[in-house]
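Researcher: We are triaging several targets before committing to wet-lab work. For this one, the compound of interest is zinc ion. I'm pasting the protein sequence and the ligand SMILES. What I need is the predicted three-dimensional arrangement of the protein with the ligand bound, expressed as C-alpha cells, so it can go straight into our comparison scripts without reformatting.
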Amino acid sequence: MDLVPEVSAQLEELSAWRRHLHAHPETAFEEAATSAFVAEKLAGFGLEVHRGLGKTGVVGVLRGSAGGHEAAAVGLRADLDALHIHERTGVAHASRTHGKMHACGHDGHITMLLGAAGALARRRERLRGTVYFIFQPAEENEGGGRVMVEEGLFERFPMSAVYGMHNWPRMPLGKMAMRAGPLMAGYDVFEIVGKGKGAHAAMAYEGKDPMPFAAHVINALQTIVSRNLHPLDAGVVSVTQVHGGDTWNVIPEDVVLRGTVRAFKRDIQDLIEARMRGIVHGAAAMFDMTATVHYERRYPATVNAPEPTQRAAKAARAVVGDQNVDLNPTPNMGSEDFAFMLQKKPGCYVWLGTGKGADTAGLHNPHYDFNDDALGIGASYWVTLAEQELAAA
Ligand SMILES: [Zn+2]
Ligand SMILES: [Zn+2]
C-alpha cells in the first residue's frame, strides 16, 4: 500500500469526520448540514467553494500552481446522501436520526474526497491545472447527479474528464476494480394497474377479478428475460410490490404491481418495456379487464470510457499495487446516477474494496458501516489520479 504522505498524516482526522457524517445522515436534496460541513472544510483548505448547484450540491475548486496547460481540468465526484433505513449497527457513531442511515457508505465517499482536497491543496505547487471536487446530492433514487448536470455543472466548471468511486464491501480491502464499458446497470421503474370489477367473493361471476390477472402478469413478466432477451444480454425484471384487496370476502376493483428493471443497454430497456406492455395488455384482454402501464427511465447504465479507465487503473496501481487492481470485474446490476455525468464527459467509475471478511454487511444493509481502513486508500487514489491526469494534459 502506497499512501500519499499528506493523506497518511490525517488518517485519524478523516476517521473522525467520517464518523461525524455517519452519525448525522441526511437524505436526498436535504443534505443541508452535510453540505455545510463539506463547504466549511473546503474553504478551510483554501479552495474556492460554490454552493447550491442541485440545491445542496457543493463544488470546490483547486487551482494548481505548477503551471501547465491553462485549461487542464479534471472533476472528482462524491455523493452526499443517506438512505431511509433504521440503523442496527450498534456502533458508537450510529445514526442520531431515526429512520435514516449512511448504509451505502457515502459518508466514506465524502470523507475520502475531502481528504484528497486537503492533501492536494497542500501539494498545490506540484499540481498542473485545476481540480473540481464535486459533492452531489441525492444519488439514491432521485438523480442528484442528473440535476447538477442539467443545472450547468460542466458549463460552469469545464473539465476534460470526470471520475467517480464507490466503496465495495464484497471486494476485500486493498483491492480496486474498474473496466472500460458498462460497470453498473440502467435503472427503470414500472407501475402496472389492472382494473377489473369488484364483487362479492362468493359470486365471482358477477365481477372481473383482477387477482388472476396479477398472477398471470407476474409470471409472464419473467419470460421476458428468459424468452425474449439474447442469452448473452443481461436484464432483470423484478416485481417488488403487489397491492390489492382489503378483506376475505371481497373481490377488489383493481390491483397494482410495481417493480424495477435493470439492463446495460438502452435497446434492451426498450425491448423489456415493449414486452411488458404487450404482456400486460394481453393479460387484460384475456381476463376482460383494462390495464395501464407506467414505465419510467430513472438512470442510464454507468459506462466507463476506455482511456480514462486506463488512467484510473494506473492511479489505482500506484496506490494498491499491480496485483490488486482488477481490470475485468463482473459488472453489477445495481445502478448509479454518476451515469449522467459519464453521458456528458468521458470518465471512469471504480470500485474500492472495503470488505473485512466473509460476514461484512452489504450495501443498504442496516448493519453496514463504512470501513475506515479504506479512507487513506481512496483519498490517495484521488490525489494520484488528479496529479497524473493533469500532468498528462
Ligand atoms: Zn446506495
Ligand atoms: Zn451508493
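Researcher: Any quick observations?
Model: The CA atoms of residues 332 and 345 lie 21 Å apart.
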